[in-house]
Design brief:
heterodimer, A: Immunoglobulin-like, Cytochrome Bc1 Complex, Chain D, domain 2, 5-stranded mixed sheet, 12 strands, B: mainly alpha, globular
Chain lengths: ~325, ~550
């Protein structure tokens, strides 16, 4: 098996029953109840249909070419029975499914709100105090959290298997979904709507903390100033999931590798040759699509409003070290 | 073989038939004979199926490991897009109506041809033209939107979206014209004595399919034209950066593509009705219920498109209504299954190849249908939407259902089409391989999806690897089974025994003429005095 690349590793999805992941939100038991009901209905009908079929297949196998077969070719009673009975059952399923869905659609009025932005291929979470957290959603346990979501480019979908919630994230409009986590721990958020080359790498970590701990995290959400700039840059590189598109070992991904990038001369898509110096790197981070290296697509997010000057300095320091 | 059931004298092996009546490539390319056109559809759709199947095997191979196995992400995305687009638009929609429908429908009615033979040939040429456009994307930048072409992704990607949508647009006309042709043929060209309730159930199924083809396909055409205009002229219907609404595209797309699911499955259901009745030599149970359930599926099928969008940002009220209607459409499918079951009751069941495929269909379609109930439930769908559970569900319906029915039907009418008998042993082996391989491939995908594995993922979490590997090995077994089918059928052409006119003891009209039939289908214009399932073996 190939070892994971530089991308931060993600939590596995915690297994609950044979079929379903662990139920870790207040909505999950309702969904699982509906799952159980429809599973039993399905098993019931499957056994009836396939059991009957197997029995008939044996009982009425052809013995001779002159076998006599039945002329009974209809029965109003039977037709009505197997129309009405399944109808009643599926109407039951409809109502069971409806109640869980409505619970997920209407967030409690005291919900804590987080703005969610999806873009190729990065999740960003913005807190009411202005803190920005890329690829990592930290939430308090036992408190309803409402996501107000929008996309910057194509459609994405916010999916957390352990919470049993999913909602598309659409450009040009807001969608929302909420959950209340019931267990402290780490979970993986997956993008569930196909969005291109990095679709399957568009994961994020959800960290559920005790409310006290969450408060502390929120206040200090900013990074560690005691580290050297290149180290802080490395943390930013991981935090913003740059590794989804930029390798450090010289291999080609969606974007160019950082190995030996600093100081190199690159040919742009318009034919110009530009030396990758500090100003080029700064512009390429903040206004990513201003200059595109030949052979690549202009798909990198614009970081102008998301990174501070210090962050850019740290990232450049980190890139310089990739010789 | 006893000919006790034949109503009309049949000249066995009189020499001329529709295949050898004329020679030369032009006699095929310019033919208006529905049987020859059907045969050309058969060859064309089989090539498309092989190509789509090749992509499927490559996808499964790539998924052997959680990260790169042998292709990069961009190639993988193109491979699943082309797998889907080829299978849906070039194979599964045209295959049964185009190949088997074209061949048997006029004969079942006692007609010499379809109502508009030249239009029928035009359908085939439109199919070929559309196929060329679609497949040209293979060499000109590929396509990576998924077969669903969702905007804004499809409005911005650098791949050959316009070419493929143009191809699908053209194929749409092929589909519309075939539907129109069949409807008129059923209304106008029934032989004396073939009343509506003496139509074989395949005809009812194809009729219902044709109604959907005519009413739904234009919406796909309009949607694709709008998508092309969006890409070329930037008019801003779907693209939010131009003020458009991306969810509107999904409404338009599924307004066609959900009914299209019934274009795919209804003809398969029709084939199953034929095979089960003939190979159990028993009057079909609930003829009218099966016939009307086809029409009910065709009509209710128009009202459920929103169930593809429960989590896509449509209103909760809309989602609720679509969920309700979705459960309604489950009922007529259930009615069919129950009636097929009762057709086995007190029958005389033979286990020749077509019946083996039909019984495999019953098993697989039942699972496919029941897992649809999970997805129809709003809350459960929130968890399962866009996961492998959905992938498994529609493969159980589309492949376990339609493709297995198609292969069963191909074996059922092969002696009629070619005049040759294939090896029953190899037939049974291929049915077993496909049945086992299919379940090995797709059942694990239900588990994957329920455990949280999203679809269209190139990389995946390590925990999913064992189930993915199981699924991949299953795909090899299916591939082997398909090769056995191909070998068995093709070698019958060279070395198979000559087929009698009625190898299974069928009662519908196609079994009352020579194998293969003459160009005009019947040497004597048929008159029908009994139903298609009145078997002489009946106890009185």
């Amino acid at each position: 098996m190939i070892a994971p690349e530089t991308a931060p590793s993600h939590e596995p999805i915690h297994q609950g029953t044979f079929w379903l992941p662990k139920a870790s939100s207040t909505l999950a038991p309702g969904v699982d109840h509906a799952w159980d009901v429809v599973m039993w209905v399905s098993v019931f009908f499957f056994v009836i249909v396939i059991g009957t079929m197997a029995y008939f297949m044996w009982k009425y196998r052809r013995r001779t070419d002159k076998d006599e077969t039945s002329t009974v070719d209809h029965s109003a009673k039977l037709e009505i029975t197997w129309t009405i009975l399944p109808l009643v059952i599926v109407m039951g399923l409809f109502f069971v499914g409806l109640s869980g869905f409505m619970n997920a659609s209407v967030a409690p009025s005291d919900s804590y709100e987080v703005q969610v932005t999806g873009e190729r291929w990065l999740w960003t979470f913005i807190y009411p105090n202005g803190a920005i957290s890329p690829s990592r959603l930290v939430v308090p346990k036992g408190k309803p959290v409402r996501m107000v979501m929008s996309s910057k480019d194509v459609i994405h979908s916010f999916y957390v298997p352990e919470f049993r919630i999913k909602r598309d994230v659409i450009p040009g409009q807001y969608t929302s979904i909420w959950f209340e986590a019931t267990e402290v721990g780490k979970y993986t958020l997956e993008c569930a709507e196909y969005c291109g080359t990095g679709h399957s790498d568009m994961l994020a970590t959800i960290e559920v903390m005790e409310p006290e701990q969450f408060k502390q995290w929120l206040e200090s959400a900013g990074g560690d100033k005691s580290l050297p700039p290149a180290k802080r840059g490395e943390a930013l590189f991981n935090k913003w999931q740059c590794s989804a598109c930029h390798a450090l070992d010289g291999s080609r991904k969606v974007g160019p590798s950082f190995k030996g990038l600093y100081g190199r001369e690159e040919t742009m898509s318009d034919g110009r040759v530009i030396k990758a110096d500090e100003n080029y790197l700064r512009e390429s981070i903040l206004l990513s699509n201003a200059k595109i290296v030949k052979g690549y697509d202009p798909v990198m997010p614009i970081f102008k409003d998301m990174l501070k000057d210090d962050d850019v300095n740290d990232l450049i320091a980190f890139i310089k070290e990739q010789k | 073989m006893a000919q006790a059931v034949a109503d009309h004298p049949v000249t066995e092996q009189s020499g001329t038939n529709y295949i050898n009546a004329q020679r030369g490539i032009l006699s095929w390319l310019l033919t208006v004979d529905h049987k020859r056109i059907g045969l050309m559809y058969l060859v064309s759709t089989t090539i498309a199926f092989a190509l789509g199947g090749f992509f499927a095997l490559m996808l499964r191979l790539e998924l052997l490991t959680p990260r790169k196995t042998f292709m990069d992400a961009a190639t993988y995305n193109q491979a699943f897009t082309l797998h889907g687009a080829i299978m849906v638009f070039l194979f599964i929609i045209p295959a049964i109506p185009g190949a088997l429908g074209n061949f048997v429908l006029p004969i079942m009615l006692g007609a010499k041809d379809v109502a508009f033979p030249k239009l029928n040939l035009l359908s085939l040429y439109l199919y070929w033209t559309g196929a060329i456009f679609t497949l040209s994307s293979l060499v000109t930048g590929g396509l990576d939107t998924g077969w669903t072409f969702y905007v804004p992704y499809s409005a911005t990607t650098g791949t050959a979206v316009v070419k493929v949508t143009l191809g699908v647009f053209i194929i749409g006309f092929s589909s519309i014209l075939t539907g129109l042709n069949f409807i008129v043929t059923v209304h106008k060209l029934r032989a004396p004595g073939v009343s509506w309730f003496r139509l074989p159930l395949l005809v009812w199924a194809l009729y219902a399919t044709s109604v959907v083809q005519i009413l739904a396909t234009p919406v796909l055409g309009i949607t694709l034209v709008l998508l092309m205009m969006e890409r070329v002229l930037h008019i801003g219907i779907f693209d939010p950066t131009l003020g458009g609404d991306p969810v509107l595209f999904q409404h338009f797309f599924w307004f066609y593509s959900h009914p299209a699911v019934y274009i795919m499955i209804l003809p398969g259901m029709g084939i199953i009705s034929e095979i089960i009745a003939v190979h159990a030599k028993r009057r079909i149970f609930g003829y009218k219920a099966i016939a009307f359930s086809s029409m009910a599926i065709a009509l209710i099928g128009f009202l459920v498109w929103g169930h593809h969008m429960f989590v896509a940002g449509q209103s909760q009220l809309a989602a609720t209504i679509f969920s309700f209607l979705t459960f309604l459409v489950a009922i007529p499918s259930g009615v069919k299954v129950f009636n097929w079951l009762l057709t086995l009751w007190r029958g005389s069941i033979s286990y020749r190849t077509p019946m083996l495929f039909a019984l495999a269909f019953m098993f697989l379609f039942t699972i496919g249908g029941l897992t649809g109930l999970f997805l129809g439930m709003l809350s459960v769908d929130m968890h399962l939407h866009d996961t492998y559970f959905v992938v498994a569900h529609f493969h159980y319906v589309m492949m376990g259902g339609t493709v297995v029915a198609f292969i069963g039907g191909l074996h059922h009418w092969w002696p009629k089409i070619t005049g040759k008998l294939y090896s029953e042993k190899l037939g049974a082996a291929s049915a077993a391989l496909i049945f086992i391989g299919f379940n090995a491939t797709f059942f694990p995908q239900f588990i994957l999806g329920a455990r949280g594995m999203p679809r269209r993922y190139y990389n995946y979490l390590d925990q999913f690897q064992p189930l993915h590997q199981f699924s991949t090995v299953g795909s090899w077994i299916i591939g082997l089974g398909m090769l056995v089918v191909l070998y068995n059928l093709l070698s019958s052409l060279r070395s198979g025994a000559s087929a009698p006119s009625n190898p299974w003891g069928g009662r519908s009209l196609e079994w009352q003429t020579a194998s293969p039939p003459v160009t005009e289908n019947f040497e004597v214009a048929p008159k029908v005095t009994h139903g298609p399932y009145d078997f002489s073996t009946e106890s009185q």
